[in-house]
Every structure is written in C-alpha cells, then in structure tokens.
C-alpha cells in the first residue's frame, strides 16, 4: 500500500518559517520555504534541493518565501512554481530583508536572481503535471497574487491553503471557495490557523471607523500616519481612502511606492483594477526629505512602511508625530509582540525610555487572514463535501490559535491533527 507523507519542516504551532515537504506518488513537493523574522532570523529544517521535484510557493511574504533562494545555491536548479506576481514581488521583499538581516542569511543576491529566473508562472485555475501529480493554483484572497495549491494524484487529493482570506477586501477578491468545493472530495487539507482563536470585526465597520477617524484628525489640522506593510496593506489602505475620502491629501512613502507601481501591471490580480489605477493617480508620492517636512507642516495622511514601526520612513514620521496632540498614528496590521508598534499599543510609548505619546493611537483590524468563524466554515465545508474523509492538518498559527481551532473541529467530529515542527505525518492512500 502506498502512502502520502507530510514532513513538517517549520511553521507548526507558530507563525513564521512555513515549510512542509509533501511526498505523493514518490514525488516530493516543497510547500513554501520561509523564515521567521526575529532580530536573528529563524529557519525551517534543512531540505536538500536534490530531493525536491517541485517547490510550490503560495506567495512572497517572507514567512513563506524567505529561504527559497538557498535551494538555488548549488548547481542544481529545482523546479519552482508561483504566480507571476509573487515572483516579481519576491525580489523587493528579499532585497529588503537582505538590507536588514543579510549577514544572517545563508545565500547571496545571485541566488535570489537565480530563483526569480527559474520560477515558472502558474495562473489561477491553471494546472501543471509533475510526475503523475497534477498541481493547480487557486486564488487565496490573501494578498495580490497569493494562491493555494491543490495536488491531485490518481487516488489522493491534497489542498495546501497557505495564507488565505475568505472576505472580499478593497484590494483583492476572496479565496476561490467555489473551485475548492468543486474539487472535493479532498483527502488532506493543510490549512493555516493564524486567527483560529479570534474573530474579525465586520470589514465594512472597520473601514467606516478608520475613515471617520482619519477625516476627524485631518480636518483638525493634524497628520495621520498609517504604518503599513509595503505589499498589500499599503495598497488596500490607499483604495479604502480613495473610495471613501478622496478629498483628503494622501501620501505614499517608502517601498510601498515602487510595489504600488508594479501592481499596475497585474491588475487582473486585484478586485477592481480601475479603482486601483484611479487611487494611484490620486495619491502623492513622497520624493524625499523636503516632501516629508512639508507634509508634516501642511497636514494630511501618509501611508508608509513598515507596518510595525520597525524600519522605513514610518519610524521617522512616528517620532515627529508623537508629541503632536492634533495628529494620529493608526496601526492597521497585526503587531508582532515586542515590535515598536506593539509597544506603542500596549504602553502608549514608542520605546521603554521615551515619553508617553500625545498623538492619538488606534488599531484597526484590516487582517488579510480568515478569522475564526471563516476558518471553521471553510474547513467544515470541505470536510462535509468530502463525505467526512478529509484529514485536516492545522499549521501557521500560534499554540493558542491552533489548540482552540483543533478543539472546535474535534467537537464537530472532524479528524484533525496539529503537528509540531519536525513531525512526519503518514496517510494511507
Ligand atoms: Zn502572508
Ligand atoms: Zn504567513
């Protein structure tokens, strides 16, 4: 009897360094190969490029992609698949990581370019056959260009979700659940569980609350800093502001500028390419220190990386706005514990040795991951449609999130596993 195997190289009971080696029909598929970006980056377990038949990259966020270039550092060139947009964005994100953590990384810029050159683009709904296994990419709704991978052998089907979102945001369409359900029965579902213990507020309410707070502050003569990740969140905030408050003066700074322009060539990956193009005409690009000083004087909104105030121009703005009671810092992403953004939310200070800030500080839940009820819904629909034969493997979630979701699913009679890093799971075909 043959088996499918899943070796957990990283990303189990944690968010970061996602990496899973799936063996199906004697072929080995590496599902993502990311890093955890701490002060010193953490890596998943080693895998030899020799042993891999294909690398499947769901999206270019570094917790999924950050170690892929290492696999291109020998003379062997493994096959790798991702959407064309993920391949393009990989260059920006890895070069940026190299600036901050380059000395810790086990590869150089040559390997990054070798990776990008060798990625074979796979569009949404497109299939490719690798040694008797058909691999299909489906929209994951997480960031522009993100995908899930479905792997189909003669009598076993696997879905690896990567990061996904089942609500429509201003920037991207939701996960393609219809196609997923059409592909059922699915035997093995490897699914993220970032928000396994937390629901999200209704997105329309979040958008409304955010826009009202921004308008309030700007009308009072202040500056609003919106720290945002350069890829995805910055463009989403831009679309939200353009849609509801296009009489405001909105600026874009840092790496978000070049990534925003890049996305213009990939409008098919966006919910509304027309709206996005208009939003880019409406926003002003900050071109240097002079523009920065001027906007701080004249007022308006500035969207800038990094999203957790760890680097990039958002640090510059935060320091200058901290003392201004007419201004605000509105955080719009999850803040990793111990980042300056997290510290600001918890203590009202930018750092332990600084004064309490006088500006208004708020956090808005613009998550690009499915919340608890959406995760539960997605998983149980797949299980129901597969006559209960699906085995569910929970990954990409902190301990608390994974355990909470595991318990809820077990309560519904779902067969669920929550492995640890290093575990090898075996499934009979
Ligand atoms: Zn992601
Ligand atoms: Zn992730």
Keywords:
429 residues; alpha/beta; Metallo-beta-lactamase, Chain A; Rossmann fold; seven-stranded mixed β-sheet; 13 helices; 32% helix; 21% strand; globular; binds zinc ion
> What is CATH's topology name of the largest domain?
Metallo-beta-lactamase, Chain A
| DSSP summary, beta strand count | 20
Structural class: alpha/beta
First and last CA, distance:
7 Å
Query: Which CATH top level class of the largest domain fits?
Result: Alpha Beta
Biggest beta sheet summary = 7 strands, mixed
Counting structural domains, the number is 2
Helix fraction bin: 25-40%
Number of helices: 13
* pLDDT < 50 runs, ≥5 residues: none
Mean pLDDT: 96
Cα-atom radius of gyration: 22 Å
